[in-house]
Amino acid sequence: MSSLALAADVAATCVVAPFVGSALGASGRVDALLLPRRSIRALGTRLATVFGTGVALTGLVSAVHLAGSSFSDQTAFHMSRVVLLACASTAMVAAGTCAAATLRDPLDAGAVVSLASLVAAFACLGAGPAIDLLPRSLLGFALAVSPFTAAASAAGLDIMHDEWIYRLSPLAHEQLPFVDWRLSAAAYVFAAVLCTVATSWRTSRRRDLAPDQA
What we know:
The chain is built from 9 helices and no strands. The protein has helices spanning 3-27, 29-33, 40-67, 79-102, 106-122, 136-145, 147-154, 163-168, 181-209.
């Protein structure tokens, strides 16, 4: 997996997916698919829509990778990379949908989630000496949920010992906990479900407050 492919994965997760989610939430298409409010089946429909959108985005990004890769580049076809990308994209789509249910402007919603995900991706790399103040357990969690380090782990890349990371970030000089991409994927799935439940609650509450507009 090249650095360009890694950058494409991070861009799809941190930039494209949040705006796709905010557009999906703002368009009202998710609500149009829902059954009666507060229904478990309605929540299931919303979850299926969000997860389906994340998987579709993953398929698009993977197709681009495959089109630009030779069959000898085995890391481009790592199933772990595809699974993690699907989980991360789904989480960001769900977060964008949740933000769109809260903020009036869908562009603002997408921008807020995109900025937050970029901070999560690169904050540890740019923290400087302050990184020494963090407990190792907290640092390990931050690296696990970072789309950048998680994607590198899923592709089997030791990104923290790359030359440019070694020059720019004090993390390369630290004894870091191993980033398990499975933990990252589980965290993303949990975040996606949590955001989807929050979106359903927000939508139901808004309908209760304005029943004539439902």
